[in-house]
Amino acid sequence: MTQPTATAASRYADSLRLSVAPMMDWTDRHCRVFHRLLAPGARLYTEMVHANAVIHGDRQRLLGFDPGETPLALQLGGSDPALLAQAARIAQDWGYDEVNLNCGCPSDRVQAGRFGACLMREPALVADCVAAMVAAVDIPVTVKCRLGVDDDNEYDAFAAFVDQQVAAGAPMVVVHARNAWLKGLSPKENREVPPLRYDWAYRLKQERPGLPVVLNGGLASIEAVQAQQGKVDGVMLGRAAYHDPYLLHQLEALQTGAPLQTRQALLRALRPYVEARLAEGSALKHITRHILGLFHGQPGGRAFRQILSEGAHRPGADWSLVEQALAVTERDGGREAA
Ligand SMILES: Cc1cc2nc3c(=O)[nH]c(=O)nc-3n(C[C@H](O)[C@H](O)[C@H](O)COP(=O)(O)O)c2cc1C
To answer: What residues make up the catalytic site (predicted)?
Structure first.
């Protein structure tokens, strides 16, 4: 990778302050366009795509994105350095700003394929993968990892894993700050049951002040995010960003000083995108499923959700349904001052 200049490096570090986690079946391009409107400066991540799929699959479907989505990272799955290097090159050619290697997914399918979280036990192989990708592209090659797997409880082993990836050329690390249990827990339980240990991420940062560290796991409020200030370089939100997307907007506004917009105004800004997709033949439900949480905890929020969930799958459903749902939030006093 070409050496970044000091300014490019500090711009990169700044772009790490807020990101939305890669989430299979959730962070598709419709979702990302919506999140981008809410948080113009956040880093967005795709769903994980296996290197083989990038190389042999339908690239338009798997890799296509809206130009407005950037800065955008493609998350790759895999553990074959040559395949990952090829996939990373394709990602760069498609205009991605970063490729990120998944070292955190605990699903049985992923374990069987020898990638995801089980790679935490193969730091040298991961480093080979990172080095191969770094040699193939100019964009940053990063890693999203756990603290360990199963009953691993050695901070030094975790730190050594990170150090090897940094030595191989990764300019930053995203730490989902809990272990992955490879036996006996579903992927969902693996996001809830193993205890969070932010202190490992803090210590990693303290001991390596030059290494940008992004903290992920269980961050679900403004207060929780603010509590990370000065301890890590940035935060990555997953479920909270999806279920309560206005939180992204509030965080972005706090971090940048940009004025808050109302939920209604933000959603109406999505209209041109929605209408363009509908004109291409997409169904409304594929887009609106990502916006159901926009009025989370707000007056009219439940009715908003219900109108969209019930109406969006009907043939011919169009933007007027979204306006109907918005009208309820406005009628019920949802025209809240931002
Ligand atoms: C539906 C869903 C799908 C996920 N898919 C991925 C994935 O493809 N790659 C990945 O690294 N993590 C994936 N994750 C894990 C998240 O990126 C994140 O690490 C985890 O949810 C913890 O963050 P949170 O507590 O903010 O949700 C997924 C999480 C969810 C809820």
So the answer is: 105 (proton donor)
